[in-house]
Specification:
Helix content: 40-55%
Order of helices and strands: EHEEEHEHEEHEH
CATH architecture of the largest domain: 3-Layer(aba) Sandwich
Distance between the termini: 12 Å
Number of domains: 2
CATH topology of the largest domain: Rossmann fold
Structural class: alpha/beta
Mean pLDDT: 93
Largest sheet: 6 strands, mixed
CATH superfamily of the largest domain: Flavodoxin domain
């Protein structure tokens, strides 16, 4: 049986929710999957990529950067990842304004800089939680609100500046996961 490792770093839970949905699709395809939250796992306990047929790495984007743990994971394992079916995904507000540029900035550039060759990569829309129950700190919430106001004004994207905005396209995410399954089954 094929075995996939899904690792992610999530600032506010979006990358985690996506990893969980993707892992369910892998399980439905009869693929063994291990899911690891790199932020909650000590680096010394990060799994080795040796025993996996495929590795999927996800990250949130904040201030135009990957979360540090997934990036460190890629750097640590880059020599072994090109021998695997590798996938990358990020979640970013930039996708709301320029999807192709977001793919270049957050997937292609990382891959080129690290010398890795993902078979598949994608950028998914964000969750922008500006509600009272948001788990964002005051500073993060203020910065996010300013960015949201700019995106709303400049790109005619409707954003509730006091509520929960879930822009994720679950069909896109499921298609991505199923494409990864196809790659794994062909290997």
């Amino acid at each position: 049986m094929k075995k996939i490792l899904v690792v992610f770093g999530s600032r506010f839970g979006n990358s985690k929710e996506i990893a969980n949905v993707i892992s369910k699709i892998f399980e439905e395809a009869k693929i063994i999957v291990d899911v690891v939250d790199l932020k909650k796992t000590k680096r010394k306990n990060w799994p080795s990529t040796d025993r996996y047929d495929g590795v999927l790495v996800g990250s949130g984007i904040k201030i135009m950067k990957w979360t540090k743990e997934p990036l460190a994971f890629l750097k640590k394992n880059k020599n072994n990842l090109n021998n695997k079916t590798l996938g990358l995904y990020v979640t970013s507000m930039i996708k709301l304004t320029d999807y192709e540029q977001a793919k270049k900035d957050y997937c292609e550039k990382i891959a080129n800089n690290l010398g890795i060759q993902p078979k598949i990569y994608d950028v998914f829309d964000p969750v922008i939680d500006l509600s009272e129950t948001s788990n964002l700190g005051a500073l993060d919430k203020g910065i996010l609100k300013l960015a949201a106001m700019g995106i709303s004004k400049d790109f005619d994207v409707e954003i509730d500046l006091e509520g929960l905005n879930d822009f994720r396209d679950w069909d896109q995410i499921k298609d991505y996961a199923n494409t990864f399954v196809d790659f794994i089954k062909k290997e």
